């Protein structure tokens, strides 16, 4: 595995260097009628600038200082978007300004609102600058919590995230040779940056602030890398209310049908603040996730440090990951693995399923996908061949929490040079072939890591 990562790092160095200098031609939306006063809708003018740029064979769309109120805009081949300091791209709080597109969201292919900024079916695009892109997401946050209360009461927790359509901030979809650089991104209606079905993407130096003061956005993931390859993420700083840096590859029957992995990915030199996971694998694991290196990462108050999550019915293999040189401060759980994550979100309650089937009504495509049952053998996830090295965590609640399955233990883990200070040690359940080398866990209650139904666990003190 070391040789594979060495080769991959060379590829990523080339990827980082080939950022693509911006073309000399510049197009300003103000020349097409944009008024940067934060009140005039500028969607049409910005899109006209993009289209004119593309017609000339490429170039850069640049903005005069000010606030540009806009709905969804769509980039084209070889068209860069430069958002300089003093420029704010502000999402309009009007659902009709985000047209429905065919896409994937939360592991399911479905129709969903376009993002604020879309790089879809394009190549050779750079979105960069020291300015700010703001999704004005509070409208959609309020919409979600209202629907969530109604759906929870009906046993529909598993589908509310899909029925409550909300625009992402930046979508890179079926694209190649894309670069995001330097921007401040804030208040997304849903996920902040979604990289899906794409290749050769570099994300460098983003600051993501997905919360609004003390009001936090539901599902406000930072950067999601979804069934994509040859991805480099570096020098980013994320504060959000869901997974900070996350790897995904499809959900359940639909994800198994698509069967596209996330692979050859490096995440380095980044910071996670509030959020659910410094580095997260899953829960959408159906297409598989492999050849991942994450290093020089820091977590401050993040809910979980290193996180693996999936569930029965999802399937897929997560393998060949090297996670090293991490520091964590005040994370709730330093290392967490769960093969049965969040049943209410992942499982259709049987009484609800029977009621829906008895009604015999035509269901939306995403309802059908979520309700399709996967055979046990195909739907059991497997997490294996993971190296976690040079980790220091202080002020954690739990050092390690692992919950595999009896029919598919989490296997072949190497934990080396680990120092964790926590209130309690935690439990490893349904695991096999783990090796612990120089692992020191100091606990307030004096507890040791408890093993349940584990095989061939070496070196744990």
3D architecture notes:
There is one protein chain. The protein is of the alpha/beta class. It has one domain: Pectate Lyase C-like. Helix 3 runs antiparallel to helix 4. The radius of gyration is 22 Å and the shape is globular.
Name the descriptors.
alpha/beta; Pectate Lyase C-like; two-stranded antiparallel ribbon; 45% strand; 461 residues
Quick summary of this structure?
With 461 residues, this protein is of the alpha/beta class.
Structural class: alpha/beta
* Low-confidence region ranges: 16-22
Q: Which radius of gyration do the C-alpha atoms yield?
A: 22 Å
Number of helices: 9
> CATH superfamily membership, which one?
Single-stranded right-handed beta-helix, Pectin lyase-like
**Residue fraction in strands:** over 45%
Cα-to-Cα separation, first versus last residue: 27 Å
**Overall domain count:** 1
CATH topology: Pectate Lyase C-like
The CATH architecture term is 3 Solenoid
Largest sheet: 31 strands, parallel
Globally, the shape reads globular
- Name of the CATH first level: Mainly Beta
Mean pLDDT: 94
Topology summary:
Blueprint: H1 2-17, E1 26-27, E2 37-41, H2 43-55, E3 59-62, E4 66-70, E5 73-74, E6 79-82, E7 87-91, E8 100-105, E9 108-113, E10 117-120, E11 123-128, E12 132-134, H3 138-153, H4 157-163, E13 170-173, E14 176-181, E15 184-186, E16 193-196, E17 199-204, E18 207-209, E19 223-226, E20 229-234, E21 237-239, E22 245-248, H5 252-258, E23 262-272, E24 279-281, E25 289-300, E26 304-309, E27 317-329, E28 333-338, H6 343-346, H7 350-359, H8 365-371, H9 376-379, E29 382-403, E30 410-429, E31 431-443, E32 450-452, E33 455-458
Parallel strand pairs: 1-3, 2-4, 3-6, 4-7, 5-10, 6-11, 7-12, 10-13, 11-14, 12-15, 13-16, 14-17, 15-18, 16-19, 17-20, 18-21, 19-22, 20-23, 21-23, 22-24, 23-25, 24-26, 25-27, 26-28, 27-29, 28-29, 29-30, 30-31, 30-32, 31-33
Antiparallel strand pairs: 8-9
Helix pairs in contact: 3-4
């Amino acid at each position: 595995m070391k040789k594979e990562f060495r080769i991959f790092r060379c590829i990523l160095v080339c990827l980082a260097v080939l950022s693509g200098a911006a073309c000399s031609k510049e197009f300003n939306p103000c020349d097409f009628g944009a008024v940067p006063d934060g009140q005039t809708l500028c969607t049409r003018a910005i899109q006209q600038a993009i289209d004119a740029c593309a017609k000339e064979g490429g170039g850069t769309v640049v903005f005069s200082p000010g606030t540009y109120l806009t709905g969804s805009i769509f980039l084209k081949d070889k068209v860069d978007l430069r958002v300089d300091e003093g420029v704010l791209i502000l999402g309009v709080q009007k659902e009709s300004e985000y047209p429905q597109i065919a896409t994937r969201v939360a592991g399911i292919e479905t129709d969903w609102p376009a993002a604020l900024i879309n790089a879809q079916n394009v190549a050779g695009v750079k979105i960069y600058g020291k300015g700010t892109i703001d999704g004005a997401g509070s409208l959609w946050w309020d919409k979600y919590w209202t629907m969530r209360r109604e759906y929870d009461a009906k046993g529909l927790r598993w589908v509310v995230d899909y029925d409550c359509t909300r625009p992402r901030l930046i979508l890179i979809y079926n694209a190649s040779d894309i670069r995001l650089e330097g921007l401040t991104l804030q208040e997304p209606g849903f996920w902040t940056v979604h990289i899906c079905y794409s290749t050769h993407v570099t994300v460098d130096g983003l600051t993501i602030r997905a919360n609004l003061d003390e009001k936090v956005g539901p599902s406000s993931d930072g950067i999601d890398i979804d069934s994509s390859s040859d991805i480099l993420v570096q020098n980013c700083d994320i504060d959000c209310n869901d997974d900070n840096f996350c790897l995904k590859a499809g959900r359940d029957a639909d994800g198994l049908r698509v069967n596209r992995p996330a692979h050859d990915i490096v995440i380095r030199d980044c910071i996670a603040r509030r959020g659910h996971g410094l580095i997260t694998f899953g829960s959408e694991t159906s297409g598989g996730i492999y050849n991942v290196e994450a290093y020089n990462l820091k977590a401050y108050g993040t809910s979980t440090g290193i996180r693996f999550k999936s569930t029965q019915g999802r399937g897929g293999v997560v393998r060949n990951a090297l996670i090293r040189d991490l520091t964590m401060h005040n994370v709730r759980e330093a290392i967490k693995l769960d093969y049965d994550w969040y049943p209410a979100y992942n499982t259709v309650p049987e009484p609800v399923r029977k009621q829906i089937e008895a009604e015999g009504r035509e269901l939306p495509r995403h309802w059908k996908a979520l309700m399709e049952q996967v055979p046990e053998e195909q739907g059991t996830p497997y997490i294996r061949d993971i190296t976690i090295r040079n980790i220091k965590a202080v002020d954690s609640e739990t050092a390690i929490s692992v919950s595999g399955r009896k029919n598919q233990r989490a296997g072949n883990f190497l934990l080396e040079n680990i120092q964790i200070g926590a209130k309690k040690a935690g439990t490893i359940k349904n695991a096999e072939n783990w090796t612990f080398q120089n692992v020191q866990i100091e606990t307030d209650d004096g507890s040791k890591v408890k093993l349940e139904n584990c095989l061939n666990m070496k070196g744990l003190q």
